[in-house]
């Protein structure tokens, strides 16, 4: 955390309200995001208890597992979830636009451009917190190797159709969420705390309700007090007034409300099973429905406040103007979505349990590259982020005090103007070091020629983007009196060295891939499985 | 100076006074010890734990109840899983221990599971030490100690610890077994949970080493523990050897650093008492008489954290925002001081922290003012 953010947090304490940590929105927000507010059962490795899901803030779909230990009920939940999520995900596959992609020609081995279709937009999943992102991954892992009755008639406990497909999509969302700057799957607490600094620690910012209380406190109340209430206030029965955003539930809720309701449901179910005639069964079915209703009401009462909080967070974020590079990063998300969609349609097997070395290396390289890109782009889009880079000596802003034209000494001289900049910043620069500025949206490079004694006056030689002629193109050379901002980092960072082709994988990384890996087996199932 | 025996007695008496008359001492468990070691400078926690004060009740009496609690679902499942792991005289558990910890040894064919029941924690600890001695002598066999009791000296007072199990290998060495109900998914588990389990196991290793040192020829306590978890989404046990050398070293160091309880007790006024029966103001004053070092990490490990957080916030301590924040701000420790320094109202401009703060404040103000204008070009 930079000193500027720390200062913002301290200001938030003294003003009793969150302070901006960004002046623009650094993440893409879909016009029609799918919000997913899940709850899990304690101690059961993410066994779902229920969820609110949907794209319409006024009409969430409530899904409930009245007895989380019952496999059939869990499958019913997952099948229902698939019925909501998959049509939503598919709906973005229809509209496509033409795009180009560089691919290696399998015959000549050359890099060639190919015309491909890119989905015009992509789905976006929003969960309340980081733990929700982990649950999406976990659910994906638990479902993608399941076998349906159609695929494997012999399998015990076959999964409902479409559940394995949902698993593959959730896995893809979860995997994509690990790429810095991606927006296919967002945790609301992460996005909010990226844009606002609260007067509490980042640990406490994980509580969505408290975080929102700092950013947008109720009329006439202070952030600290409102946040404390959201965190701790309990009613006369000892239940939290503002339930945690999940997916874990409050132990007091589990013990006092949920456990009795689930027990009642179990009793009603065994009573129904033991019913001896139709009339009795009818009456007991009524009891069972009432017991199920009770569990549903409980789950709804704990998810609805979070559902509203997520939408409130979306409203707050939408008030911020979108950063200039956000659309470019969203295009990468669209590529990611399009690519996975194609793999699913081509009938490729689900993502393996463990990546092979080549895939793992590629993923890591991608994440590193995207991290560097994200840092550069956020700074360029947002003066507040740039301020932190200037403070740390990675950028400087100043006024041009002099411009002297010089040329290279070749047969066709090119312009190499010397620009003198006066700055109050203290960049960590040595002579000959490269600096970059944005000129008409493109990065222009310059190098440091000299630095005055006190370090505040820098003489830079501009090196590129001035056209082909002897005279620089108009507007391509800084002018006297202009205020500029140079960065020491590249605006479009290149990744590391290109990875070798899979066939050239060195032995240190397992060597070239052998024959096609065998399809991953399904998880063995036992009586007391939890997912 | 009175002879040590009397001094110890005097301390015990003093701690009982602090706890309040007729109040049962709450035993320290490994989890609490591991958490204690995470914040070794906190005198408040040291004395309250050392005196066996029930911090959860104390926190409720202070009007800042803790939020810890265990869901009965998690409890039931944890117990069911542990029972399953230890079923059949520990056959499956020993098979896992052989496979993951000691492959060169003879595979276990039926283990002896000594009975460890005895009166009170001291009795059980003595019984455990005896069983360990016997098992170490009987070479060539595997022995499983189910819920043994170990004593560890913590800052001058004994803590009784109950590991899930301890295994004596055929070569006479000992291993700690930790059974957890979080899943090991495709061979890996949640690193935060594994870390917590390793810290907890490290405390058991330390306690076992004390027992081992007292044996005739000292026995060897292995530094790789057996972590047993459910496999993937099933209820079948799987295990992994976890090296706890680092956690053991850290915990051992922190335990010796734990501010001596005697010292803290001596510094307290005579009439201080932490009995939850007392009125809230009196309790608050008593708690206030011992300094605390609050940090947000306390929220997940100490029952009194919400009380300390309130106090820390009232005092305007910057540590409320996290330890790294505190580290960044040098000698400035309150929100007021930092903001005054940043605004140029106070502080020495020669101080690098103050200078950096002023630059940061100026840059931030400039960036926020430029919000209307397009980004920095």
From TrEMBL, chain A:
Positions of region (Disordered): 490-531
Domain of life: Bacteria
Name of the protein this chain belongs to: Uncharacterized protein
Organism: Streptomyces composti
């Amino acid at each position: 955390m930079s000193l500027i953010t720390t200062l913002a947090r301290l200001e938030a304490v003294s003003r009793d309200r969150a302070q901006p940590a960004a002046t623009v929105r650094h993440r893409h927000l879909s016009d029609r995001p799918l919000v997913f507010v899940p709850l899990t059962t304690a101690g059961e490795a993410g066994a779902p208890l229920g969820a609110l899901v949907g794209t319409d803030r006024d009409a969430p779909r409530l899904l409930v597992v009245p007895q989380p230990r019952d496999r059939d009920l869990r499958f019913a939940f997952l099948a229902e979830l698939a019925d909501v999520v998959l049509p939503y995900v598919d709906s973005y596959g229809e509209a496509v636009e033409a795009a180009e992609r560089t691919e290696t020609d399998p015959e000549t081995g050359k890099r060639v451009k190919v015309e491909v279709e890119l989905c015009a937009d992509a789905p976006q999943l929003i969960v309340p917190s980081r733990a929700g992102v982990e649950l999406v991954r976990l659910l994906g892992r638990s479902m993608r190797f399941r076998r349906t009755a159609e695929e494997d008639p012999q399998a015990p406990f076959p999964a409902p159709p479409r559940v394995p497909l949902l698993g593959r999509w959730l896995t893809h969302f979860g995997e994509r969420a690990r790429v810095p700057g991606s927006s296919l799957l967002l945790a609301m607490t992460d996005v909010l705390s990226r844009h606002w600094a609260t007067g509490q620690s980042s640990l406490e910012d994980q509580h969505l309700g408290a975080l929102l209380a700092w950013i947008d406190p109720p009329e006439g109340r202070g952030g600290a007090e409102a946040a404390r209430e959201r965190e701790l206030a309990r009613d006369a029965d000892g239940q939290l007034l503002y339930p945690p955003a999940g997916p874990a539930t409050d132990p007091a809720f589990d013990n006092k409300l949920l456990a009795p309701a689930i027990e009642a449901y179990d009793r009603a179910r065994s009573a129904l099973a033991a019913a001896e005639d139709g009339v009795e069964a009818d009456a007991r079915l009524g009891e069972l429905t009432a017991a199920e209703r009770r569990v549903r009401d409980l789950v709804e009462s704990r998810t609805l406040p979070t559902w509203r909080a997520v939408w409130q967070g979306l409203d707050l974020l939408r008030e911020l103007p979108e950063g200039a590079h956000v659309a470019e990063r969203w295009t990468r998300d669209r590529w990611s979505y399009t690519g996975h969609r194609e793999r699913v349609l081509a009938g490729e097997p689900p993502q393996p349990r463990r990546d092979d070395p080549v895939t793992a290396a590629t993923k890591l390289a991608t994440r590193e590259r995207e991290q560097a890109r994200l840092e550069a782009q956020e700074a360029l889009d947002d003066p507040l982020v740039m301020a932190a880079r200037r403070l740390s000596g990675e950028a400087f802003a100043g006024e041009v005090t002099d411009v002297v034209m010089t040329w290279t000494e070749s047969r066709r001289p090119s312009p190499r103007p010397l620009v003198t900049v006066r700055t109050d910043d203290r960049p960590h620069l040595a002579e000959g070091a490269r600096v970059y500025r944005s000129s008409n949206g493109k990065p222009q490079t310059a190098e440091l020629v000299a630095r005055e004694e006190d370090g505040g006056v820098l003489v830079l030689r501009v090196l590129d983007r001035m056209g082909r002629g002897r005279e620089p193109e108009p507007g391509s050379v800084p002018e006297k009196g202009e205020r500029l901002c140079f960065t020491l980092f590249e605006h479009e960072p290149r990744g590391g060295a290109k990875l070798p082709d899979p066939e050239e994988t060195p032995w240190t990384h397992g060597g070239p891939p052998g024959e096609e890996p065998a399809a991953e087996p399904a998880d063995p199932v036992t009586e007391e499985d939890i997912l | 100076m009175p002879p040590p025996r009397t001094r110890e007695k005097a301390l015990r008496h003093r701690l009982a006074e602090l706890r309040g008359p007729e109040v049962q001492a709450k035993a320290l468990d490994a989890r609490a010890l591991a958490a204690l070691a995470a914040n070794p400078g906190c005198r408040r926690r040291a004395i309250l734990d050392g005196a066996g004060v029930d911090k959860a009740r104390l926190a409720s009496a202070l009007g800042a109840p803790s939020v810890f609690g265990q869901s009965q679902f998690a409890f039931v499942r944890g117990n069911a899983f542990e029972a399953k792991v230890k079923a059949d005289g520990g056959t499956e558990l020993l098979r896992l221990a052989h496979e993951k910890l000691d492959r060169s040894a003879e595979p276990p064919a039926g283990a002896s599971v000594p009975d460890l029941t005895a009166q009170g924690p001291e009795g059980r600890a003595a019984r455990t030490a005896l069983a360990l001695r016997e098992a170490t002598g009987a070479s060539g066999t595997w022995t499983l100690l189910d819920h043994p009791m170990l004593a560890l000296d913590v800052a001058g007072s004994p803590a009784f610890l109950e590991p899930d199990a301890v295994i004596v290998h055929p070569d006479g060495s000992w291993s700690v077994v930790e059974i957890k109900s979080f899943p090991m998914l495709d061979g890996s588990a949640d690193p935060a949970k594994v870390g917590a389990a390793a810290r907890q196991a490290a405390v058991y290793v330390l306690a076992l080493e004390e027992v081992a040192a007292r044996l005739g020829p000292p026995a060897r306590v292995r530094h790789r523990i057996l972590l047993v978890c459910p496999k993937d989404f099933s209820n079948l046990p799987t295990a992994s050897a976890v090296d706890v050398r680092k956690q053991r070293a850290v915990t051992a160091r922190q335990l010796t650093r734990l501010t001596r309880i005697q010292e803290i007790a001596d510094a307290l006024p005579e009439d201080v008492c932490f009995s939850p029966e007392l009125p809230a103001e009196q309790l608050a004053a008593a708690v206030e008489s011992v300094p605390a070092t609050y940090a947000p990490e306390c929220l997940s490990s100490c029952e009194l954290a919400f009380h300390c957080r309130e106090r820390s916030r009232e005092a305007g301590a910057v540590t409320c925002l996290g330890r790294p924040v505190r580290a960044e701000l040098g000698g400035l420790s309150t929100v007021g001081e930092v903001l005054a320094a940043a605004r140029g109202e106070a502080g020495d401009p020669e101080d690098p922290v103050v200078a950096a703060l002023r630059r940061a404040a100026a840059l931030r103000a400039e960036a926020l003012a430029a919000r209307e204008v397009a980004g920095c070009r």
